[in-house]
Specification:
By secondary structure, this protein is of the alpha+beta class. It is built from 4 helices and 7 strands. This is DAC domain-containing protein.
Length: 188
């Protein structure tokens, strides 16, 4: 994704932000792999939705998700203790709903959120147009929409139905089905 203005900071080019994204992605993959009932019908697995943001607040484009909170007593910063982050993410994946907001410095917001939909007049166009697929549910479509916002660096989801991991940037996505995550780990 290119900057909208020559003075924009391209957080995706920063080594620390890339490390942050890699750690979140790795933990989501591990949570997906730890669940062994993806093929069982009528079983819901762990589901996650992370948004890495560059602003100091998301209040203009998100609402609180009620009593859904990230357990900051377990992990309040992603890169400080990856094992604690994994433990907290595992808990949230099974017990809570909404997006977890992480700032580009790795600090995790306690309140989980629901990102607001675009109004028809505000839908991103051209380079930032949002891409949807038939398999996407509300979590994934929200993550696609949120990723097109200038303040959002990336969003990452784990499907509670299939174990699929999807990374969204600028309204576009790259998805990795559970089978590919499993096969990649087996080949390492």
């Amino acid at each position: 994704m290119t900057s909208r203005d020559p003075l924009d900071i391209e957080f995706l080019a920063h080594e620390r932000v890339q490390r942050l994204i890699d750690v979140v992605r790795f933990c989501i993959e591990e949570i997906s792999l730890a669940f062994d009932q993806w093929d069982d019908t009528h079983v819901t697995g762990p589901g996650l939705y992370f948004a890495i943001v560059s602003g100091h607040s998301v209040r203009h484009y998100a609402d609180e998700m009620g009593d859904n909170y990230w357990p900051v007593d377990i992990s309040h910063e992603v890169l400080e203790d990856v094992d604690s982050f994994y433990d907290a993410a595992s808990e949230v994946a099974m017990l809570r709903d909404g997006a977890v907001v992480i700032s580009v410095d790795g600090v995790i917001q306690k309140q989980m959120v629901r990102f607001l939909d675009y109004t028809p007049d505000d839908l991103p166009q051209g380079e930032y147009a949002v891409e949807y697929e038939d398999w996407m549910g509300s979590r994934h479509m929200s993550a696609a929409d949120a990723s097109a916002r200038p303040e959002v660096v990336t969003t990452i989801t784990l499907s509670e139905e299939t174990g699929r991991l999807t990374l969204f940037e600028g309204g576009r996505h790259v998805t990795t089905p559970y089978e590919e995550i499993r096969d990649e780990q087996a080949n390492e």
